[in-house]
Amino acid sequence: MVALLGPVGVARDERLVRPTSAIARTLLAALAVAGPPGVSVGTLRERIWGARGDDLSESAVGVAVHRLRRWLRDSVGDAVTVAYVRDRYVLQGAGTDAAAFRTLVKRAAGAEPPERARTLEQALALWRGRALEDVPAEAVDPGTVAQLERERITAATDHARAALASGDPERALPVLGPLTDQYPMDEPLLGAWIETLAGCGRQAEALDAYERLRRRLDRQLGIMPGAELREIHLRVLRQETPPRAPSPERRPRQVPAAIADFTGREEQVAALLAVLGGSESAAVAGMGGVGKSALARHIAHRVREDFPDGQLYADLQGAEPAPTDPAEALARFLRALGVGGSAIPDGLAERAVLYRTVLADRRMLVVLDNAADERQVAPLLPGADTGCRVIVTSRTRLTALPGTRLIELGVLDGGRSRELLARIVGAERMAAEPDAAEDLVRLCGGLPLALRIAGARLAAKPHWRLADLTARLRDRHRLDELAHHGLSVRATLDVSYDGLDATARRLYGLLGLLDVPDVPAWVPSALLDADGEDAVEALVDARLVEAARPADDEVRYRFHDLVREHARERGTAEIPEPERTAAVRRALGGWLALCDTVIHTVNRGGDALRPGDAPRYAPDAAAMAGATARTARWLERETEALTAAAGQAARVDDDLCWELAVRASILFQPAHYVDAWRKAMDGALPVTRAAGNRTGEAAVLHRIAELACARRDYRAALGPVEEALALFEAVGDGHGVGLVLRQRAVVHRMAGRYARALDDTDRSFELLREADDPAGAAHALMVAGQVRAERGEPEAALEVFGRARDMAHEAHDASVELQSVYGVGQALLALGQAAEARDLFDYVGNASTAAGSRLGGMYANHGLGCAYAALGQAEDAERALTAALGLARERRDRLTDLRVRYALAGVYGDGGDEARAAAELRHALRLAEALGVPLWTARCRLALGELTGDGEQVRRAGRQLAELGVHRSRQDVKEM
After folding, report:
1. Which residue in 113, 398, 888, 946 is a FRET match for 859, CA 20 to 30 A apart?
2. Count of C-beta atoms within a 10 Å radius of residue 318
């Protein structure tokens, strides 16, 4: 059992074993509190390290988990461990003392006083100090520690009253005494303490305790003790025995029948049971159709025996145009509680007072379904410190209700969605069409209402296949099909939509027109061309839009798929087409402006195609600052939006289309987001060609060629390069010609056409310098250095790489600068200066890590491995090369893969493991032949022939190298 009620640790053989590491304690606490749902890597990083976690990689969490697993294994064996399940870490094999405490408290509820006192003593004996006292509060969900402490106080006060009612008040003193010292101003706790002292015959101490509290409240807060505590004080003065609660007479059972096929929701069910078993009530919030009412009914029937005095239920119709008047709901409740019609007051306030009075001595559950807001709910809440609990459901997050825990309800995951459908249509029918079942789950988006409607339609049509319904959902209007016998997804969403004001409705329709998966906070203002913050938050409040703030990033807004369809339907029907088009252009122009800003931040806009004439929209300053302060994080969260925006721009405007595709792809390149890059380019070429936009067509072709090179498909790059070159020359764009010539030089270099490659780099260098693009010119020099190095001219390569490095540094292009430093290191290695090369590769690795670049880390590890091998440090060489190989395979970079394997073969061969060396060389040779890179084909063949004594291989490789004009040297056997 994991101990949380005091110092954190694990109970073993009636003793507590505690991790000595603060990180291990924090991790153990976070996982134990989270329970079966587990905790994501990002959340753990924040919990363990706070704000410092942003600068740490995910591997830091992995290391912490590994150390905790090792401690658990050493301390408690294999009974408790940490598993990785569905992108989350989960503590397995252990309960917690907090859960055991809550179970005992729940068991005590409703028992006779002597048994209740004994059970609560067992629960309170689990406490060894303050909850989670040796871990930081931010290690767990906010409020967890406070909630546990509040439950402890409630249990202690209940224990004291049970002991007093049993005629044995002395047994409560050891529990209450320390707690009153910790919480000297908690009035319910002090009231129990005073009553207990008086019950033990210690009236003077009881009166003194009251007087100390009175003075403390007056001095610190300027208030008097509450009415309940003053009443206790009077009873002590009169030496009266505390009154016992009368037995209730009426036991209403108003909650409707539970849903027979209720499915899933284990996490929320557990949370609700825990809340209702403690001292709080619960508010369940979620979008329309997500199953809030079903959950509330399910829980109400689960806990019926815990509330022996009955259950009250009211549908408050909060999402309807005319919500239920709370005064009317109170009248119905009072009648159910036995209050006659003439005894029910007229006013809301008077009814609320009478309602609380009637419930004061009862233990009842009140279910308030479909509430509008806190104002509607507040009069329907029982008084504080009673045995009554409340479940409220609402589309609105009711966060201002006292003593109420908010529980969010989202859509069902795939497994639970399939389970719900199977319960409605039959497991055999689902199993007969597994693919159609998956499609149906996806088309319903996990929304229980949609799943129930789909299931009901299939149940009503036993001759339909599942595929028949999925085809209708795909080929027709989905919202038309998701309706059946009074149930309708559209109608459910209409209720929320109709409650919006005009601006929020307009924003809802415009957001539905965007193809992006989610939007950052500046987009609502762009769509409205006015401040959109209040309007979008109104959509969040209505649960039509979901809002999230990942870590410390900006807020992002997202639709459920079916809600997006409803929003698009409303926007198309109610907003004129010119307004719709203008709004979409502004949003797309905003992403384009942000791309411009980030490109300029990275390298002042150099070494990239220049912006065109497409209209921009300037997002607010906060959005601009967020994009430029942490560009890697910004790009990571914006990638899907950029690719979707580029695709949508293809249907809006050819200039917007090619610029968004090209500018986004420039950002995707260093991060190696090749899939997003391809998606962004997909629609741009046919659109620019159809529009006769030669500049746009040339730019797109250039980026298509760059993408082919990034994917190491150099043969596929040549055609687009030649087309782009001709188009840029035709429109007189010297800067574009310079960039394309440099790209063609790379293609020539990889094909072994070194002379042509150098001609292109020379022309590219001059054109880019004339175009005032020093970063681009430095890049052209770097390519020339690579050509010199591969031709076996390390001295010339060293000089060219040095010039490229200096130019890139002056142009503030860190990427080209680091690549040039890497090239200098390779040239030094070829010249036999391995120690100097090692230091440069080490610098590249550190700088890349600081910049968050895994690409730089891959090259740095490759270079370090080669340098260590040359220095005779085989273990270090193998470790660095293995790391480089892992990164290359992760990026699916076959060229770096073969280069690393070539270098590893040298390490293994020098170590006498010729079989392993030969295996690596054969693998590298296959990659080289598949890629069509003749230099590396010859190098691998030469090394393999010399290793295995295959003279024909050696001679063949020698002929290839001679044809390429490459000088044979030691570099052909050991990577340079």
Report:
1. 946
2. 23
